[in-house]
């Protein structure tokens, strides 16, 4: 277990919250095709969990299996069998952590969504066998495909995954389960993504849209594939410099609160993606606006029957405008309000300062750009 000890030393130093995926195929029997039957042998998993607890290692969650349910990749375990296995694992976790004040949640199935399979699994693990129902998203297709950018910039294509979020939320609401939804893994384009697409500025349109949409449908956690590795990592695998999505995620984390508002764009150019949240650690609201049009600038004004505007002379808002260096959406350098976002010689993240503008003026969104706008003078009752 020396390697596990070394990893936990790293987790402690880095402050990482670790969800560990357990092998769900141990001692199963195949039907000669894609189905795997028989009960899961959890002896190895139980021993591993017991060792982890004995060493005092803090684990944020235990997840059963990887892409073995729903629309499985190669090998499928039936939903009723997966529910039985999750129940056995729940007993192990409860017993092993009996004297611990913190019991890590159980996650499953970590698979691609299929409404019928997930529906049966959720029903048979209700009300509280699993704490998290996790699913994976690679809706853009294979990384080697040449049409990735067209899909990323296509409103209808981006909207297509909304049904998955919506259906999962409906299943959770109607089943009586206490479980919540997580996106346990999402890299957009499978098989390691595509260089200068999934590690470039253009991918932030997909990534931020995913964060906005998942939050809209009450997803509690969104795990990006990956922090480092492949062509879809948040860090460059050679230089360890942050790719554009790192900074997009950082701005989301700093500006967007956990309460979601209903935002819709209405205009002559229907290529604006709009999301709104209560501001994080501040008054007012934060808007996320993305212009998918390659040529047209948009000037956006905010109207609402529910938002109250706190009137005061000299009211301002904060804007964070994101553009690719040189106007090339395949660039791996992101500009914030005209300044390149790059680390210094010591690897420190640059300051991410907004521009301050008159709150009465519309928000100007350049072609193929992204804007976060913090509007502290807008009051929404749900944000109080």
TrEMBL record:
A GO molecular-function descriptor: beta-glucuronidase activity
Pfam families, A to Z: Glyco_hydro_79n (PF03662)
Membrane topology type: Peripheral membrane protein
Extent of the signal sequence: none
InterPro entries: GH (IPR017853), Glyco_hydro_79 (IPR005199)
Annotated GO CC locations: extracellular region; lysosomal membrane; plant-type cell wall
Function summary: Endoglycosidase which is a cell surface and extracellular matrix-degrading enzyme. Cleaves heparan sulfate proteoglycans (HSPGs) into heparan sulfate side chains and core proteoglycans.
PANTHER family linked: HEPARANASE-LIKE PROTEIN 3, HEPARANASE-RELATED
UniProt-recorded name of the protein: Heparanase-like protein 3
Higher taxonomy: Eukaryota, Viridiplantae, Streptophyta, Embryophyta, Tracheophyta
């Amino acid at each position: 277990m020396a390697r596990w000890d070394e990893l936990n030393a790293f987790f402690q130093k880095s402050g990482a919250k670790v969800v560990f995926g357990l092998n769900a195929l141990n001692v199963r029997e195949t039907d000669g095709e894609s189905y795997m039957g028989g009960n899961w042998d959890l002896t190895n998993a139980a021993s591993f969990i017991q060792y982890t607890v004995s060493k005092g290692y803090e684990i944020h969650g235990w997840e059963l299996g990887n892409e073995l349910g729903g629309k499985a990749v190669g090998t499928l375990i039936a939903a009723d069998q997966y529910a039985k296995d999750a129940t056995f694992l729940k007993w192990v976790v409860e017993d092993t952590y009996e004297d611990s004040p913190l019991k890590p949640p159980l996650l499953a199935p970590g698979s691609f969504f299929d409404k019928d399979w997930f529906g049966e699994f959720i029903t048979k693990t209700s009300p509280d066998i699993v704490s998290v129902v996790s699913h994976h998203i690679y809706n853009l297709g294979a990384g080697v495909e040449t049409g990735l950018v067209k899909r990323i910039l296509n409103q209808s294509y981006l909207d297509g995954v909304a049904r998955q979020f919506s259906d999962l939320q409906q299943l959770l609401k109607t089943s009586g389960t206490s479980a919540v939804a997580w996106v346990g893994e999402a890299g957009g384009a499978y098989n390691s993504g595509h260089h200068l697409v999934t590690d470039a500025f253009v991918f932030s349109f997909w990534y931020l849209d995913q964060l906005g949409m998942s939050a809209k449908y009450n997803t509690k956690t969104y795990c990006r594939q990956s922090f480092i590795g492949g062509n879809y990592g948040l860090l460059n695998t050679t230089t360890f410099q942050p790719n554009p999505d790192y900074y997009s995620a950082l701005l989301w984390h700093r500006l967007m609160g956990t309460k979601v508002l209903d935002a819709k764009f209405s205009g002559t150019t229907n290529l604006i993606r709009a999301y709104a949240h209560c501001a994080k650690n501040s008054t007012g609201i934060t808007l996320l606006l993305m212009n998918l049009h390659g040529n047209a600038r948009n000037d956006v004004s905010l109207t609402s029957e529910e938002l109250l505007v706190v009137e005061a002379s000299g009211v301002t808002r904060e804007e964070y405008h994101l553009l690719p260096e040189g106007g090339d959406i395949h660039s791996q350098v992101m500009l914030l309000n005209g300044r390149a976002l790059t680390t210094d010689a010591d690897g420190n993240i640059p300051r991410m300062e907004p521009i301050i503008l008159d709150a009465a003026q519309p928000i100007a969104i350049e072609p193929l750009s992204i804007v976060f706008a913090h509007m502290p003078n807008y009051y929404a009752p749900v944000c109080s």
